[in-house]
Design brief:
The chain has about 325 residues and is of the alpha/beta class. It contains nine helices and 20 strands. It has a single domain, classed as Metallo-beta-lactamase, Chain A (4-Layer Sandwich). The strands form four sheets. Strands 8-7-5-3-2-1-16-17 form an eight-stranded mixed sheet, covered by helices on one side. A seven-stranded mixed sheet has the order 9-10-11-12-13-14-15. β13 (about 185-190), α5 (about 200-205) and β14 form a beta-alpha-beta unit.
Length: about 325
């Protein structure tokens, strides 16, 4: 973290999934979601470079695998000390095998001393100097797994960041009714990966973010982000909308008064790549290597310039952008 930055918000590029890291200096870490199937060694390297050893709070915003992945949670459990876990108290008629495995891992964590909670709309928590306001789920409209998402606004000094999970339009109507005063935010993680029913225009107008980040995989089968949703996000975002499959992982840094630095394609470095690969392979029990070729494609045969790895997403670090650059 830059010396002048007290807080940072990282939207990691994990393909068609979700994983965010929020830091207060080098002392406190909040992780939102744990889908890292598309980039496990990158996540390991990124967390290592950010000196993450303890996860003070892990928020599983939803019960679906793109947010709460059993392999991802197992990886975090193996490699980091997790002090506290939040997840939505939502029961599907038929639980998926993935969610059963996630619940089993949560039960193990609780037995090992991790605090486990199911937060509700209206609750407020203080973690370090961060203020967390929970805007969902709400009993009134938690009728689907998406609308039962944990929706949280994190306040760092005077800077607000809104993380709405897979919240859909019906849930936004209730949030506007009960919590509109908490919606304005400097940073927005686009709801439901930028889907056409992820965010209403009224909600976006109330949020009016400076920056929006959309976590989505390239050429994903859902068509995220939706073209009309993207137009709305651009209409109400005053500085820039980022797409992880185009911009890689995005690092937002703050002094507690404003967002002072934005770094697209954050976290790419050749150093430590092999070390991270070995750590991931060990954690996930891999025996058969997959080779990452120089152009980013995957194969089972080694080629010149290739590297043995789990499936990955590559990121190229670029300089942080100035306000003038962002306005282009």
């Amino acid at each position: 973290m830059a010396a002048e930055s007290k807080y940072s918000f990282s939207i990691l590029n994990v393909g068609q999934g979700s994983l965010q890291l929020i830091e207060e200096g080098d002392s406190l870490n909040i992780v939102i979601d744990c889908n890292l199937q598309s980039a496990p060694e990158f996540v390991a390297r990124y967390f290592g470079r950010r000196k993450v050893k303890t996860i003070d709070l892990l928020i599983l915003s939803g019960t679906d695998a793109d947010h709460a992945d059993a392999d991802g949670l197992a990886f975090l459990k193996k490699n980091f000390s997790i002090k506290r876990v939040w997840y939505p108290d939502f029961q599907k008629e038929q639980e998926t095998d993935n969610w059963k495995q996630v619940r089993a891992l949560i039960n193990q964590l609780e037995k090992e001393g991790t605090i486990v909670e199911t937060p509700k709309a209206g609750q407020t928590f203080e973690i370090g100097s961060l203020n967390l306001k929970v805007l969902g789920p709400h009993d009134e409209d938690s009728t689907t797994s998406n609308n039962a998402s944990v929706v949280v606004r994190i306040t760092a000094g005077d800077v607000h960041a809104l993380f709405p999970g897979d919240c859909e339009n019906e849930r936004w109507e209730s949030i506007l009714e009960y919590f509109e005063e908490y919606l304005p935010a400097h940073l927005l993680l686009a709801p439901h990966h930028g889907s056409d029913h992820g965010c209403s225009e009224d909600a976006l107008a109330a949020i009016s973010p400076e920056y929006t980040a959309i976590s989505a995989g390239e050429d994903n089968k859902y068509g995220h982000p939706d073209k009309n949703a993207l137009k709305l996000l651009k209409k109400y975002t005053s500085k820039r909308v980022f797409l992880t499959y185009e911009d890689g992982s995005i690092l937002f840094e703050s002094d507690g008064k404003s967002i002072t630095s934005v770094v697209p394609d954050a976290g790419k470095d050749d150093e430590g790549k092999k070390e991270a690969v070995r750590a991931v392979a060990t954690a996930l029990g891999s025996r058969a290597p997959v080779f990452v070729h120089g152009n980013g494609t995957l194969g089972t045969r080694a080629v010149t310039g290739g590297m043995a790895a789990r499936p990955t997403v590559f990121h190229g670090g670029r300089e942080s952008e100035t306000d003038e650059q962002e306005a282009d």
